[in-house]
Each structure stands twice: as structure tokens, then as C-alpha cells.
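Hey,
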Amino acid sequence: MTNEQINFFKELAYIQEYCVNVSLSKEEKYNNKEFLTDITGEIIYRIMELLDGYGGKLPRCNIINTVTGEVINEGIELHDKCVEFLV
């Protein structure tokens, strides 16, 4: 694996640890479905921040549709937009 790939997966591991700790602090306030929705929403948001370049060592990443060549995250911050779609 390249250094960039290793850094990417290290950042994902950090996001997982962070989200587990945040979610454990909120566990008693939710029923099971709400709790899982909150956990997954937090994880998705943090991954979008990572792709936007707000992670540790990973610069902003482009998400490219390999069929059309369109850069999906061109001109937007993924972490800002994902909250409009998540429950």
C-alpha cells in the first residue's frame, strides 16, 4: 500500500474511534434505531470531512464518476451537504 492509502485508512480508524466514543456518551438518550441513525450519521459526516481535506494528513480528495468523468464534489463541501440528506 502507498503512504497515501495508509494515511487514508488511519484517518478512517480515527473517525471510527471518535464516533464510538461520541455515541457511547449519548447511548442512554436514544432507542436502538435512533441510536444507530445517530452513530451512522456521525460517521458519514466525519468521512465527508476527511474527503473535504479536514482530516489529519490527507488533503482534499476528488470523487470522480468513472463513467462520466464528472468530479462529484466540485464546488461543494461534502460534509456541509450531507447533513441535508441524512435523517
